[in-house]
Each structure stands twice: as structure tokens, then as C-alpha cells.
């Protein structure tokens, strides 16, 4: 196996260099602190347990163990998918400012972002694997019977293509072929932005669903991706340095400073968008008003006010200014809180769109005006497992790729 | 409208002489407004047919399908005996946890006459079907000849986008078929085998369900939809799905 690897690497780096690198990787990997391995083991264990939940759900049938049903077919697994792929897109957008468009200050965050972008996109795919009833059919019929009017088809296809581009981009970065990596970086960026706007359009183009219908969600998701990307970069870069017990060097400090500022700007834009989305919704159609009222005053008020607004938007915005974009402990705290808030944003955008009964205006007794959805243990475990998978892969990445140090080129 | 037309109209208005064409358009708009004003979903014949067709220009001219299958519910006849639901279950192997047709009960305690009414529902076989647009693999499609929304079960990936997009809650995931299932006007179980009406229509003891070809002037559905005497309406016209299932009273 090693022989084969050696021969394939010939011409790029020398044989000795490759073997040396390999041994060094192994040595480095085994030389981590106790805390690192405990975290690795713990996250690995959670991934295993939640995979068992997922496989169990697949075996007994999703409808028996998930909280979704005929009237609310999309639950927190769809939210989880949106959560991860939006982070992935955000990582691509922010990091490409540096390594695709040549803004030097952002180059230090590039390599880690590309790696994490692969991880989060793959995680998104894993989550949706446990939501789609026949994922294997998807692979066949997406190719043999494509429906070009379907946003889901475009989204799935574009994200699949972008995963290939991303992988090439990362490999080329590892091989220090930066010029080619840049081309793949650009292709990744284009495919991902198109994919995320199609993801938004999956909701935005449903003309029977007033809460979702319109151009807001595609635009909101792109804006939200920028915010999520910044959150992820600060969160994981901070953790990466903590785990490796390293101090930020000057270029990295500058990079995080810039990311922090970009993040504050994107948060301000998001606050603005959320405000006007609510305001217009409150004077919209009856179905829209019912949904918005339930969201901000009803059962989902805690989700909205505490998680989305307080944790997701206001506190990080405030913390960023307190930190003056230089206190990385505070910025890390902001990113942690924001992550929680963002997850609830995704839950709400998916679920609230479905809670108003189809027949609410006909005064039928068969359905309540506002339908309810509660995620089950299986669904929650799959989401926890997905987060654990991200942490697990992140830890492996930090070790294997030695802190993703990037030289300025 | 160009300037020439504008001045022409201005002149005719001044003279108190409105062209017939304008009169007809005005009448049509008036009827639509009255229909909407009467209760949100209640629509007059002109707007109903317009809802059922691709555009209002096609009004009384041409139907997109032949036969253009359609169903009319004479709702005040329904006694909620559930025979249609049972017949549908048996004919199409619909499991206990799902339904292709259902009878909803509307209750209004403040109504001055009767306080409840039954309202059967099923797939509206829309002319602008949201479910068909969203399906990534064309597992659900609108039949080019009959206009029936059908399923190719083996292509269904189970993403449930069609269920989310349907304004009429007409779809459910069938575990046995491993695909989304829905009413096909009994195409697979009956119509394709030479029978003329779906099972639910056949068993209804009080003739709530009228089924037929909306493009055939001799059919009962055509006669009900194209009359002025009684209100005919569709459910949720605001979604723009252009349903082919109509409601009226006897």
C-alpha cells in the first residue's frame, strides 16, 4: 500500500520526503495530549452511538421513530442539513476572499477552512442520508431522471459537484499547487453559492407556503452563510490553537481580526433582514401572519427571542465590539453562542413554514389551526452525532495536517 | 396599452360608448371580485374555470387534456358515511396510517343555519402542480393525456418535498411501496382497466362525487362547472395551483 502511495506521489515530492512526512504525521498524531485523545475518543463514541440510532431508524422506518408526520414532513434533520451545508458554504465564501481573490490578510485561515468546509458538507450529506427515505435511489435517479425545474435537484447536484471541487482544492493545497488550487477554489465558490441559493429556493419557490414564498430565503441563506462561515472560522481556529497549545502568530491574529469585522457586518445585515422579514410577515396573508405570530409570540417565542435573537445575533454582535476584534477568548465565546443560535434559526425557518394547517381557513375540526412538531430522541441523537462527527474530524485534521499552517504565497 | 389605444378609449368614454369587449372584461372582473368578496374561497363560474385552466384566455376555448379528468363535490349532500374512504382503501391498498381521500368536517357554531358541513378532499390534480415542479427525479408527473398526477414509485427518493409543497395535504409516504402515494383518480386500479369512474364515486350513496371529462360539453362535470345559477368554487385558489377539483352545493 505504501509502495503504491510512494509511486503515485513521485514527481510531486521526492520519495524520501514523502516517507519522512508520513512518519512525521504518525509521530505527531501519537504525540498529542491526554485531553486531545479523550476528546477524540468521546466524539468518536458519540458518532458511533448516534450512527446506531440512525441505522435503527432506517431499519424500523423513519415514521415510527421521528417526530415528523404527513402534515410536517420536514423536521430538525432537514434543519441540521441546512445548518451544516450553510456553514460549509460560509467557510468557502470567507476563505476564498483570501486564497482565491488574493486578500493576503485572510490567507492564514484558508487551509483549515477548506478542510472544515469538506467536513461540514459531508456532515450535511450524512444528516440528510438519515432523512431521505431512499437515499440509494437518489444516486441513480438524480442522474437518470433529472427534473430541471426542481430546486432540490439543482441543490443536490451542485453540492455534490462542489464536494468534488473542494476535495481537489484541498489536495492541491496540500501538494502546494496553489495556482490550480485557486482555480478549484473559484469553482467551489461558484457551485456552492449557486447551491445555497437553490437550497433557499427549495423553500422560497413553494407557492402554496406563504411563510416561505418569495426571494427572501435564498438571499437570507447567502447572508447567513457569511455569518456562519465567520462563526466557524473563529470557533475552530481558536480551538485548533488551544488543542495544539500554540499561540496565534501575527498573520493569524490579523486574519481573525478581519474575520471578526466581517462577522460583525454580516450580523448587522442579518439583524436588519430578520427585522424586516418579521415586519412584512406581520402584515402579510393570514397564513403568514398566523405563522409569524406563533413564532414570535407563541410556542416558538423562546426559540426566536432567546436562541435566535439573543444568542444568535445580539450577544455575538455585542461581544465582538467588547472584544474590539482582538480579545479572542471573547470572540470564541461569541462564536459558541452564535452556533447555538444559528441552529435554532435553521430549525425555525424549516418548521415554522409548515405549522399552519393546510385547511385553517375552512374551520375544519380534523386539524388544529397550528400544527405541532416535537423532535424525537432519534432525531436529536443524529444531530448530536453530526456535531460530534465535525469535532472528531476537526481534531483528526488538526493532528494530521499539523494545525493547517499556511505559508503566504 | 399604447398611446393610440389610450386616446381611443378616452374618446369612447367621453361619448358614453364603451366597446363590448371592455364591457365583457369589466363584467368578468366584477364577477371575480364579487366571488372573492363573498367568502374568500367562493368563486363564480368565470373565475373558477379560469382557475382550472392555464390562463383565462383559454376560457371556454380549449382544455389542455383529453379527457380532462375532473371531479366536482356537491358538498351539502355528504353524510360522512366514509364509504368512499373505505372503497379507496380497498381498491388502492391504502394502509391504515395513510389516506388518499378524506372527509373533513367544517364547524361554525356562529352560523345561522346548519353549524357543520362535510368537505371531502383528495388530490386536486392541479394544472400548475407544485408537487411536480419540486420532485427532483420526476417520480411524480402530470400525465400528458389525462392531466392526472401520477407516481412512478421506483423513482421516489422519499425527500417528501412534494408532500411539503402540496397545498391540499394530498400526499403521504407509503412504507410498503417505499414511495409517496396519492390519489390517481383510480387510474391504476380501475380507469386503465376500462372502468369509467373511480371507486369513491361508485360507492357514494348520495352522489356527492361527480367525475368526468371537463372538456366534454355533454359530461355532468362540464354542465355543473359551466353554469351561472349556483356558486362553484375551488379550495385555496390563492396558491395559483389551478386545481381540477371543484365544489358546489346541490
CATH architecture of chain A: Up-down Bundle
Helix tally of chain A?
A: 15
Mean pLDDT of chain A: 92
Q: In percent, how much strand structure appears in the residues of chain B?
A: 15-25%
In the predicted model, the low-confidence regions of chain A spanning at least 5 consecutive residues are 1-10
Q: Looking across the biggest beta sheet of chain B, what order are the strands in?
A: 8-1-10-9
Assembly annotation:
heterodimer
Which structural class best describes the helix and strand composition of chain B? alpha+beta
Rg from alpha-carbon coordinates of chain B: 20 Å
CATH first level of the largest domain in chain B: which class? Alpha Beta
Number of domains of chain B: 2
Based on helices, strands and strand pairing, what is the structural class of chain A?
mainly alpha
CATH superfamily of chain A: Formate dehydrogenase/DMSO reductase domain
- CATH class assignment of chain A: Mainly Alpha
Question: Can you write the helix and strand succession of chain A as a string?
Answer: HHHHHHHHHHHHHHH
The beta-strand count of chain A equals 0
User: Which runs of chain B of at least 5 residues are low in confidence (pLDDT < 50)?
Assistant: 10-60
**Chain pair forming the biggest interface:** A-B, 39 and 47 residues
Biggest pleated sheet of chain A: none
Task: Give an overview in words.
The complex is a heterodimer of chains A (409) and B (250). Chain A has 409 residues and is mainly alpha-helical. Chain A has one domain: Up-down Bundle (Formate dehydrogenase/DMSO reductase fold), CATH 1.20.1630. Chain A has helices at residues 2-9, 15-30, 34-60, 62-65, 76-99, 110-129, 135-144, 151-174, 178-204, 216-243, 250-282, 286-296, 301-323, 328-351, 377-400. In chain A, helix 3 (34-60) packs antiparallel against helix 15 (377-400), helix 5 runs antiparallel to helix 9 (178-204) and helix 5 crosses helix 10 (216-243). Chain A is globular, with a radius of gyration of 22 Å. Residues 1-10 of chain A have low confidence and may be disordered. In chain B, strands 8-1-10-9 form a 4-stranded mixed β-sheet. Chain B has 2 domains: 1-37; 41-126 and 183-248, Alpha-Beta Plaits (2-Layer Sandwich). The radius of gyration of chain B is 20 Å and the shape is globular. In chain B, strand 4 (140-142) and strand 5 form a beta hairpin. Chain B is 28% helix and 16% strand. Chain B is α+β, with helices and mostly antiparallel strands. The chains are: A mainly alpha (409), B alpha+beta (250).
